[in-house]
Amino acid sequence: MCDVALTMLFYVLLKPVDRNIALLAAFFRLISTATFAFAEFFYAATPFIVNGGRNLAPFSQAQVNALALLSLTFYAHGGELFLVFYGTGSTLLGSLIVRSGYIPKAFGLLLALGGLGFIAMNFALVLAPAYSSDVLLVPMTLAMLLLALWLIVRGVRSEAGSGVAARPVAQAVHSNVCATKVAA
Predict the structure, then answer these.
(1) What gap in Å lies between CA 86 and CA 75, rounded to an integer?
(2) Neighbouring residues of 31: CB distance < 8 A, sequence distance ≥ 6
(3) What pLDDT, on the 0 to 100 scale, is given for residue 42?
(4) Which 3-state string (H, E, C) describes 68-91?
(5) Beta bridge partner(s), residue 156
(6) What is the pLDDT of residue 165?
(7) How many domains is the chain partitioned into structurally?
(8) Contact status, residue 39 vs residue 110, Cβ threshold 8 Å
(9) Percent helix, strand and coil across the chain, each rounded to 5?
């Protein structure tokens, strides 16, 4: 739920830069969230499989254990698939931040690099699992922490270079949402 709200926040903040790319980034992030949420069902199913009761009574313990392991394997693959969608959305967001002028370009570059790291991690997991490394995820972690801190402490400017004082993120989103409702 938080990721859906965060996706809307980024869309509202970055649509003035390029509405189509901001919308595409939002779609990729929402698809990644849905993919990961679907994968979570397999993770949550494992205890039900192991403690299956009468539904799984016809199966031997070895078969139940194999089914539980299969469920966890599906969860892992769903988590891997999530990486490519989330990485693509993050790369697009990073490019928008670089072009925005009201969020530091370094955050956008780091976010785009982190997105590419997520995509590279996905391909490494599929094509060369031995070369897959969590090091590829470090730029994304740094980007998200720094960007979150920046948005909480500093806020964003309503227009790049306008001299308008920085506003907290919640206030900026509220103003844009209200303006959209009034315009509609």
Answers:
(1) 16
(2) 85, 89
(3) 93
(4) HHHHHHHHHHHHHHHHHHHHHHHH
(5) 167
(6) 38
(7) 1
(8) no
(9) 80, 0, 15
Q: Which domain holds residue 116?
A: 2-183
**Residues 171, 175: Cα–Cα separation, whole Å:** 6
Unique residue bearing structure tokens 């980034």? 25
Helices (H), 53-168: 61-100, 105-127, 138-153
Tokens found for residue 35: 């993919």
SS3 of 167, please?
Answer: strand
Asked whether 100 and 160 are in contact (CB, 8 A), the reply is yes
pLDDT tens digits for the chain (184 residues)? 888 999 999 999 999 999 999 999 999 999 999 999 999 999 999 988 888 777 788 888 898 889 999 999 999 888 888 889 999 999 999 999 999 988 899 999 999 999 999 898 888 888 888 878 888 889 999 999 999 899 888 887 655 444 333 444 445 455 554 454 544 4
Q: Tell me which residue of 5, 52, 63, 59 sits closest to 29, measured CA to CA.
A: 5
Instruction: Quickly tell me which residue has 């002028």 as its tokens.
Output: 101
